[in-house]
Amino acid sequence: MPTSPLSRSEKSRRTTDSPISYFIQKALETPSLISFAAGLVDEGSLPVSEVGTAMAELVADPTAARAALQYGSTQGLPKLREQLLQLVCVADGVRPSDVSLSVEDVCITTGSQQLLYLLGEVLFDPGDIVIAEAPSYFVYHSLLQSHGAKVLSVPMDEHGMKMDELESLLERLRRSGELSRVKVIYTVDYFQNPTGLTLARDRRSKLVELARRYSTNHRILILEDAAYRELRFSGADLPSVKRFDPTNEFVVYTSTFSKPCAPGLKTGYAIMPPDVMEPLLHLKGSHDFGSANLMQFVASRLLASGAYASHLEELREVYCRKRDLMLEALDAEFGDFPGVSWTIPAGGLYVWLTLDGIDTGPNGSLVQAGLDAGVLYVPGEFGHVPDENGRVPTNECRLCFGVATTEQIPEGIRRLRRACDTISRMSKTKKVKAEV
């Protein structure tokens, strides 16, 4: 054993394990458990043949294969960056020049998580402020803790982050002299993780307008996490928040191949202002000298061949069916349960369940009752930051329908109802004993 303690950095001491790690481990260690916890993708629909074809074609071409097996650039494969720029602009109904974009504004990352981390390294000093939705993506909260940044939250309704509440928060921060600490407004604006809600169209332009208006002494960036954008089941696609940033100054748009294609590609991308790109690439070069070149060549071939678009169509059908099964099961099992509600997502992987009167928190009664019944969820508490009184909601659950099979989804919801009934009986018993 070492005789002297390790002297760790402040950042290392601030960095802790993600709260979801326990739930992932529990699901892996208990095969009989039906897990609605981890935000994993449907295993049966992974594009095995499509990726196999792309790889075979790649290695059959010695020139292309050698290029793919060589080092790439820190910013990423130029052809893939051009393809992704076109993908986003076509979805937004604009030409790149309409929104002051070029291939130089696109960066390939090792999943979108790397972009989230690198952007934090570019922007945050301890004590800086990030404004996020309430609830929000809890893994990002852990990342912000590592950087020493503080999260302030804005309530949501069925149309996403409430812009009047955001404006009130920004104004309070201006009056208190704290506006200079606000560096980022973070939104998962399509089928949000964890609620499944989507930011309404009129709020997208308003979000950019507020960031611009309150950028008085420094620029406040919007971080648009569009990881689930392409997993839409119903309704027309909405323009990105980036679409309302015509000068390419205020919005960093990030997405990934993980959810709409395959997590194993570990490839994400971002579109950002030039003065954000430069320092980010300096840091990225120190991290990895560029993300996996081979995977970028594979992703480029999937896009060029049409395999990516075709796979997306199949994937939307798979997840739509799973979403419908979960909603049908919730209606059947919880329709008569008092004080219950859930979101109806138009895409993505998540349903947000609210259960009045039941403690769904990590130390609450439902986690253990659910484990006893054979079902696992993510406590909604993880998605919140404490209010001024140190409180967070403890009656919400994130249910992911991504990895559970079509047979498991209705059974898992039945098990969750049994767990809730167990807690209700225990509460009634305690109440009777207290009255006696």
Q: How would you explain this protein's 3D organization?
A:
The chain has 2 domains: 10-46 and 312-428, Aspartate Aminotransferase, domain 1; 48-308, Type I PLP-dependent aspartate aminotransferase-like (Major domain) (Aspartate Aminotransferase, domain 2, 3-Layer(aba) Sandwich), CATH 3.40.640. It has 14 helices and 14 strands. The protein has helices at residues 10-14, 21-29, 48-60, 62-69, 78-92, 111-123, 138-147, 163-175, 201-213, 274-287, 293-305, 307-334, 365-373, 408-435; strands spanning 34-35, 106-109, 129-134, 150-157, 160-161, 182-187, 221-225, 251-256, 268-271, 340-342, 350-355, 375-376, 378-379, 396-400. The strands form 3 sheets. The chain has an 8-stranded mixed sheet, with helices on both faces. Helix 7 (138-147) links the parallel strand 3 and strand 4 (150-157).
CATH architecture level-2 label of the largest domain: 3-Layer(aba) Sandwich
What name does CATH use for the topology of the largest domain? Aspartate Aminotransferase, domain 2
- Based on DSSP secondary structure assignment, what is the total number of beta strands? 14
Helix fraction by DSSP (H/I, runs of at least 4)? 40-55%
So what's the CATH class of the largest domain?
Alpha Beta
Can you tell me the residue ranges where pLDDT is under 50 for at least 5 consecutive residues? none
How many independent structural domains? 2
**Sequence of secondary-structure elements:** HHEHHHEHEHEEHEHEEEHHHEEHEEEH
Multimerization state: single chain
Morphology call: globular
Give the integer mean of the pLDDT values: 94
CATH evolutionary superfamily of the largest domain: Type I PLP-dependent aspartate aminotransferase-like (Major domain)
Structural class: alpha/beta
- Lateral strand order in the biggest sheet: 2-9-8-7-6-3-4-5
